[in-house]
Write a structure and sequence with these properties.
Blueprint lengths: L2 E4 L6 H12 L9 E5 L1 H10 L6 E5 L3 H6 L6 E2 L7 H6 L6 E5 L4 H13 L3 E5 L2 H7 L12 E10 L3 E10 L5 E10 L3 E3 L6 E2 L4 E9 L5 E8 L2 E8 L15 E3 L6 E5 L5 E7 L5 E5 L5 E5 L6 E9 L3 E8 L2
Parallel strand pairs: 2-6, 3-4, 3-5, 5-6
Antiparallel strand pairs: 1-9, 7-8, 8-12, 9-11, 9-13, 10-12, 13-14, 15-16, 16-19, 17-18, 17-20, 20-21
Length: about 325
């Protein structure tokens, strides 16, 4: 029978330093940064295409009063009129995908330029702001609520421990707070999870789950918060080589691609692949039910596309560059 318990904070300074270096050693992003201006209708398609993407952020730069009156569902607010706006903007994660807007476009234009200068990876500005959004009959809300989502789960092995780095985010607004972390495993498991941590919109939090190597069982994790609960399992293998866990990033190659694009989900079965352009228009939908598959994209024009891959365990969204 597997035991469940609330784990306390455990610190392993030397071990965690090694793990952090190892888990980030191969993280590279050689994609060109994207800065585009979209109409309200195009932005609506972008929102829908990124509904399950934990790294999608709707950034409203109006005043708090304007934002409280009505806003896009899930949007976060950082006002250009605040004396600390530049510092707030610089503190946002730069690798995420942002939809930026104000009331009519004048304030977001300056924020758009600042985000380009700061090196944000992907920013889309709404032409005409939320006024254009409402004129198009698109919905707004007054609701404020956090949303807990998993960003990534990676495992490194050093011959002594299977050490999994879990990164979660607050995908919406409001303050996200944690109430409990439960771990289910027949063996001893340690973590440095701190349930006193709180996250504002777009903020990430990472913690480790450490399991002795050489014991091939499963660790169950349940994380509870005021923004919803998430649960997942970590497979502890007998291997002692540096490796990503079953939750590692999907392998998609070559990228850029000219003719045939390959997808490899490792132990996960690929149930559906959808390729869309940046407006959200779907160009290809496949349901392969295979662990690996390839697609002919030779008919696609040069440009940037979004691939949404649904496996039997996860949903991935990745940029694809077609270049001939």
């Amino acid at each position: 029978m597997k035991s469940k318990f609330l784990v306390s904070v455990v610190i392993f300074p030397g071990l965690f330093l090694f793990i952090n270096m190892a888990l980030h050693a191969e993280e590279k992003d050689n994609q060109a940064n994207i800065y585009r201006r979209f109409s309200a209708i195009q932005c609506d398609s972008l929102v829908k295409a990124n509904e399950t993407n934990p790294n999608f952020v709707i950034l409203d730069v109006r005043t708090p009063g304007e934002w409280n009156n009505y806003h896009l569902s899930g949007s976060i607010n950082h006002s250009t009129g605040s004396a600390t706006f530049d510092a707030e903007l610089a503190g946002l994660p730069k690798y995420k995908r942002y939809l930026l807007h104000c009331q009519s476009g004048s304030r977001s234009a300056g924020a758009f330029t600042k985000m380009k200068n700061l090196g944000f990876a992907e920013v889309y500005e709404m032409i005409g702001g939320i006024s254009a959004w409402r004129s198009a009959g698109l919905p707004t809300t007054t609701a404020t609520a956090p949303k807990l989502m998993v960003v990534s789960i990676k495992t490194a092995k050093n011959g002594i421990n299977d050490s999994t780095l879990v990164t979660v985010t607050n995908r919406a607004n409001g303050i996200l707070s944690f109430s409990n972390l439960s771990i289910s495993d027949v063996h001893s498991v340690q973590t440095n999870f701190d349930k006193l941590i709180t996250l504002s919109g777009a903020q990430d939090y990472s913690f480790y789950v450490v399991h002795q190597s050489g014991i091939g069982d499963t660790t169950g994790i349940l994380l509870e918060s005021n923004g919803g609960n998430i649960s997942f399992t970590i497979e502890n293998s007998l291997s002692t080589n540096m490796a990503d866990s079953q939750f590692s990033k999907l392998k998609l190659y070559p990228n850029p691609v000219s003719d045939r694009l390959f997808f490899d989900a490792g132990p996960e079965m690929i149930e559906e692949i959808t390729i869309s352009d940046l407006t959200g228009k779907q160009l290809a939908i496949l349901q392969p039910a295979e662990f690996s598959v390839n697609i002919d994209v030779s008919a696609f024009k040069n440009g940037i596309y979004l691939a949404r891959i649904k496996t039997d365990r996860h949903i991935f969204t990745q940029k694809v560059v077609v270049k001939k």
